[in-house]
Amino acid sequence: GAQYLKGRLQKKFTVKGADPDDVKDVETFIDTIGEDMFSDVSLSITNKITSKGRFNFANKLLQIRKKVVEEGGLTRTMVHELWHSLSRYLPKKDVDALTKQFDKVRKEFIEDLSKRAKDTKLTSKQRLALAKELNDFKKGNYNSDNYRFSEIDEYFAEEMTDAFLSKLDADAKLAPQGT
Fold it and tell me: In angstroms, rounded to a whole number, what is the distance separating the alpha carbons of residues 44 and 108?
């Protein structure tokens, strides 16, 4: 549960190289959302996954790649994966509205990418790179710039992660600095 997640963050991660500020940010996320929402979630730090993180819905296991902990990126990766966990609780009407929104922005993304790939103001090398990205995207090969448009749950997790991290940044700017 939430206390287990926080305990793992405080004890294991700080010793293993996680940035203490990242740990604090993840704890803030858990506290903001509410510990009860994560009562059934377990955590595994592993080298057995190729992605930065993954939430396994079947066994409610949040997996974080060890390299993310050691080299930075824990805040974004863990908050993103915790949003996947929370997506289980979305009411059907919200899923339907989110799906409609996702379909619209995904279509706009593909149209924009296609348009830019044909833009004669760009160099042929730039147009070729954009055409390759579009082709790869359509084949299911995503990159960090277009991953959020791969499927509805990624879109939800990315959008919510962006919103939370923006709030966290805004709150940090309002906090008093030294006294």
Answer: 36
CB 139 within 8 A of CB 150: no
List 56's β-bridge partners, or say none.
61
Q: Using alpha carbons, list the distances in angstroms from residue 136 to 105, 129, 132, 142, 146.
A: 18, 10, 6, 7, 10
Cβ atoms within 10 Å, residue 151? 13
Query: Which two tokens mark 174?
Result: 């309002």
Rounded to two decimals, what is the model's pTM?
0.86
Tokens of 96: 């339907």
Residue 84 CB partners (closer than 8 Å, separation 6+): 55, 57, 153, 157
Percent of the chain with pLDDT over 70: 89
